[in-house]
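Project channel, design review

CF: Before we commit to the Muricomes intestini constructs, I'd like one complete example in the thread so the newer folks can see what an input/output pair looks like. Taking Purine-binding chemotaxis protein CheW.
RD: sounds good, go ahead.
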Amino acid sequence: MSDTTSTGNLEEEQQTTSRFLTFTSDNLVFGVSTDNVIEIITNYMIRPLPMVPDYIRGIINLRGQIIPVMDMRLKLGKPFMEYTASTCIIILEIDSLHIGIAVDSVLQVQNINTALASPIPIENRQELTNLMLSLEDGTVVLLLDCEAVIRGSL
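CF: and here is what came back for Purine-binding chemotaxis protein CheW:
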């Protein structure tokens, strides 16, 4: 009988485990579902646009597709920091729209049990995240709300 219970728990855990790409921005670790990640690019020229919010760094032409790029640091209210060799642009697809997010560095793809995620306390909540969790190594990961990314960039 205990085998059935443990098998049931394993199935439940598999249903709530998803793959997330983890990345850093301003010394915070974020996770975004790999279901939304199209690709990761580096060393790409961002063309500035006039009359857009400062966190929209501009646009890129990726194989003929024009994609807006949002700087995560600026969106989080932090000062701009020059891009380095570890800076990446993560291209996301959200509701058939494409957007790039400039991040300090990409870490890895991890299986994360989303059932262990907790709401971020309202006083600490960021506009782009509403859930967080602690990994086995103690790293706190803020889960990116992709819908909020699109709302915040339009």
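RD: helpful, thanks. The chain has one domain: 18-153.
CF: Residues 1-6 have pLDDT under 50 and may be disordered.
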